[in-house]
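Input set for joint prediction.
Command: fold jointly, output tokens.
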Amino acid sequence: MTSDQTDVEAQSEELANLAQVDPRLIQELFDKDPLALTDQDLDVIIAEFRKDRANYIQESSTPKAKKTSAKKEAVIPLGQIDLADLGLI
Amino acid sequence: MDSTHTNYAVVGEKVDYGAWPSPLDDTGVQYAWDSVSLGLLKTCPRKYQLTILQNWQPKRRSHHLDFGIYYHSAIEFYLKVRVGEQYDTDGVLVEDRQAKHELAVRQAIRKALIDSVGYEPGPDARTGKPKTDKTRYNLIRSLVWYFEHYGLSDPCTPILLANGKPAVELSFRFDIGNDLMLAGHLDQIVQFGDDRYVLDHKTTSSTVTGASAAYFFKNFNPDNQMSLYSLGSSIAFQTPIRGVIVDAAQIAVGFTAFGRDLTHRSPRQLAEFLEGVYSYRRMAEAFQRSGFWPMNESACGNYGGCAFRGICSKDPTVRERFLRTEFTQEKPWNPLEPR
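tokens >
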């Protein structure tokens, strides 16, 4: 396994481990009459958005994985090409 | 509606400012100016006449304005609560800074949710699709992120007034000679390092961090509002003000980013700004005397298009009919009314 591939896998694992924000939970609370929201409801909203921010900061600070190039084709130096090998004669 | 207190004004009728003094003198020329009314006159005399003198406003208020108001109000509320006395559910005075911060955040978010009930940005004028940036969801997200980003570690702290309250949401007015007055309403006066500054909140879709931020922040010099704050804050509050900190929030679909920059005015620049106010006042007097407020056609396309473009593009004989259909005259803009 190349070092690039281990980097990509490590970053993917790190991102997967971030706490997931539940947008449905926030929307349910948003749909309630705000005068009826309890302190606990508000604390849930605040905690979800704080989680959201932590995820954003984490994702922004994670360097993008280098694009791993496909297995490089062997390059034959000029002057050493054998036409017979290429089936041209 | 009681007809003696009607705020309806048609061409030629007088606007009723209710309990507040009129910003117009006996000849109908404005003597008390703020950055909004001054900016309108500088942009287009016709737009100024329609908005300020005749009190026409679009029936649907700009969602940018609404979003900004909810955002500003919640932050100022947070500061007032954090500085003031707070009690927990057992009635015990809360003194721990972190606990006060958490209580203030919760109350500010509650206020923002209450204030923004029913708020939605409406469809994009070009695409017809719902706008996805300045939504209610993103308002609350932006506020929570703001309190996390700055919160207790904010290097800019509101100064305390003589009454012990934080210097937030301050209205001011002062004479500038020539029977003129300037008025305004500023968000905060803060201590930053050894100096005091006005701090003004802005919400935008522009980038406010990194190298690209300069493009956004350069809009504030020259700028009516920042010049007025620079001039007015020192005079009205009798405290030396070093400049204005623009406290910007970039409201994007999936995130909110925060950036600050300082805008400063030299004494010569402030003197030049005042000369400009006197000149524009003379211009307004001339237009009032002649009864004709010309259009500035080169401004019709600014900021997505003037709200009155559809009116000004009609024949003059039918404009009033379209104004009454598409606009409202509910509450006049009055620089002398504190907000």
